[in-house]
Design a protein that fits this description.
346 residues, alpha/beta, Quinone Oxidoreductase, Chain A, domain 1, Rossmann fold, 2 domains, seven-stranded mixed sheet, six-stranded parallel sheet, binds zinc ion
Length: 346
């Protein structure tokens, strides 16, 4: 079978690999059909995640946003799984022994393994996974199935923000990339009023299509002012950063209402300067987000099934598996043009 293997920093090659054996107890063999590429893939490809991957990241088959079809089901798997089924894959495996696992937060497990980063992922024709990580999903386009993973991050973010179903709260989302868009979608589905902010006006149309208000980023003070006016005098009770850009994080903390929730989703190694008074005077909850838990992945699958048409519009570019190296380079070199690059499913 063919596999796109990242062999070193910036080097990916298409190679022939031995097909997996029949699945062991509790395992399933799937054929990945579509793999979404995201920011963490760029960082991995650029060699910036070596430490997070235990120092021995190469060679590795990347791909953690996977839409696949089940090809065979091993003995002892849960019922309801069968060959031919379209599935999405929960990419995270937790150890079950560490402190975060012991307090039911396996998404922040100290020893977690992500497919496509710590173990081989979806950029190959077959992949073996534990049955508990396989989620049947009723969509025709495997690229849309692959979006269950970024949507699962959005579900986690909206849960961390405590935006419940039936909410009418004002929620500001900074960043209209795929994750920001999906946060807007999930918050809208729960009933919240949503304002999505981005530098690029062209990205805001998709957010409008789920009923979000939008604002083009002009500058810190102006945006904080505009967001507070939009939410009413007290400011938005919820602000979520999906950029990882220090100035956007600063805007999130400055704009959010007293007793509000500020949620950091955008990944970054950057350092941010905050006025500490923002935390003490406003008594903010400053919350982080890492992947998601199993029930949240299940909810993401349902969100995807309800929003196929809109999610298809998130997929801006598609490449065949043969062109995986080119696809990754294209995505890295054209950040303003690219929304979501998907490999396979062409
Ligand atoms: Zn991703
Ligand atoms: Zn753990």
């Amino acid at each position: 079978m063919r596999a796109a293997v990242t062999e070193g920093v910036g080097a990916m090659a298409l190679v022939d690999r031995r097909e997996p054996d029949a699945p062991a107890r509790g395992h399933v063999v799937v054929a990945p059909e579509a793999v979404g590429i995201c920011g963490s893939d760029y960082h991995f490809f650029a060699g910036e995640l070596s430490e997070a991957a235990g120092g021995s990241q190469f060679p590795r088959v990347q791909g953690h946003e996977v839409g696949a079809t089940v090809t065979s089901v091993g003995p002892g798997c849960r019922s309801g799984l069968c060959a031919g089924q379209r599935v999405a894959l929960l990419p995270l495996r937790a150890c079950g022994r560490c402190y975060p696992c012991s307090v039911d937060r396996p998404n922040t497990c100290d020893n977690f393994q992500l497919i496509g980063i710590h173990v081989d992922g979806g950029l190959q024709e077959q992949l073996v996974v534990p049955d508990s990580h396989v989620y049947p999903i009723e969509v025709e386009d495997p690229a849309v199935a692959a979006l269950a993973e970024p949507v699962s991050i959005a579900v986690r973010a909206v849960n961390r923000a405590r935006v419940q179903a039936g909410s009418t709260e004002h929620v500001v989302v900074l960043g209209a990339g795929p994750i920001g868009q999906c946060i807007g979608l999930v918050a809208r589905e729960r009933g919240a009023e949503v304002l999505v902010i981005d530098l690029q006006e062209s990205r805001l149309e998709l957010a409008q299509a789920v009923g979000a208000q939008t604002l083009v980023w002009t500058g810190l003070a102006e945006v904080v002012d505009a967001a507070r006016r939009w939410a009413g005098v007290a400011g938005p009770p919820v602000a979520i950063d999906a950029t990882g850009a220090p100035v956007a994080v600063r805007a999130m903390v400055d704009m959010v209402a007293s007793a509000g929730r500020a949620v950091q989703v955008g990944m970054s190694g950057e350092e941010v300067t905050l006025r500490l008074g923002s935390l003490t005077e406003k008594e903010l909850d400053l919350l982080g987000v890492s992947c998601c838990n199993a029930d949240e992945f299940g909810e993401a699958v349902a969100v995807v099934e309800r929003n196929v048409g809109w999610l298809e519009r998130l997929v801006s570019h598609r490449f065949e598996l043969e062109r995986a190296p080119e696809a990754l380079r294209f995505a890295m070199e054209n950040p303003t043009e690219v929304m979501k690059v998907v490999i396979g499913g062409v």
